[in-house]
Write a structure and sequence with these properties.
The protein contains eight helices and six strands; from the N terminus they run ααβββαβααβαβαα. By secondary structure, it is α+β, with helices and mostly antiparallel strands. It folds into two domains: 3-91 and 139-221, no CATH class; 97-132, no CATH class. Strands 1, 2, 3, 4, 5 and 6 form a six-stranded antiparallel β-sheet that branches. The radius of gyration is 22 Å and the shape is flat. The protein starts with a helix and ends in a 5-residue tail after the last helix.
């Protein structure tokens, strides 16, 4: 059993969406996702979804000419983009756990009491900002396979190839806007982690798949962690 089977259930077929292999009364049964394959999300209602993460830029720090170019190229992309295009912005409180651990370690190692007091003051300020103001944002563009899209052969591989072509088109146009689309080495793992973080905003701050998923569910489902 692999990570996808643990999260979404087993024996998922791209051609005919099937709910078999899902545990009764489980989160798997509730999720609208059937499978993740070759960088494509397959939904329970038979749609094929591509999710791309975009690294943002500060528009207001650009020159007037650069701003005009960004608007022009982005408008040009929207004219040829898939009909069902979504732009998703996810906002979360900043993750300061690693920074706080480091500061407390420095506090314990510091011998000068005045310096220790300054470190404590810095920790208090960071905690205040993180609780009230500090935010992290992630941006995604999401689109799906549509019947009007021509594919080579009536197959799942053809759909994947067509969605990848659309992703390459988005990458070219957004690159001209000065925006970078992430290209993860392992797209399925990236999608698993992204969906996990979107569905579990609080838990995902401390629990990161895939290793933690095996540690949590391996005993319950007798998963092979080798």
């Amino acid at each position: 059993m692999n990570l996808k089977e643990l999260i979404f259930g087993k024996r998922i077929k791209p051609e005919g969406v099937s709910a078999t292999g899902r545990y009764a009364n489980s989160v798997q049964k509730w999720l609208p996702i059937e499978d993740i394959r070759n960088g494509v999300v397959i939904t329970a209602d038979g749609r094929f979804i591509k999710i791309l993460e975009v690294m943002p830029v500060n528009f207001y720090l650009k020159s007037a000419t650069e701003q005009q170019n960004i608007i022009f190229y982005f408008a040009s992309y929207l004219k040829i983009a898939p009909d069902n295009l979504q732009i998703l912005a996810v906002t979360q409180k900043a993750d300061i756990e690693a920074y706080m651990k480091r500061m407390w370690r420095l506090h314990e190692e510091e011998e000068d009491e005045s310096c220790r007091e300054m470190i404590r003051d810095n920790i208090s300020e960071i905690e205040y900002l993180a609780d009230r103001e500090a935010l992290t944002r992630r941006f995604f563009i999401v689109f799906q396979y549509e019947q009007r899209m021509r594919i080579r052969g009536n197959s799942f591989d053809g759909i994947i190839a067509r969605l990848n072509e659309e992703a390459d088109t988005a990458r070219r146009y957004l690159d001209m806007c000065g925006l970078e689309i992430l290209q993860p080495e392992y797209s399925d793992i990236f999608l698993c982690e992204t969906l996990f973080s979107l569905l579990n905003r609080n838990t995902s701050k401390t629990v990161k798949p895939p290793l933690s998923v095996f540690s949590m569910l391996g005993e319950v489902h007798a998963a092979d962690q080798s």
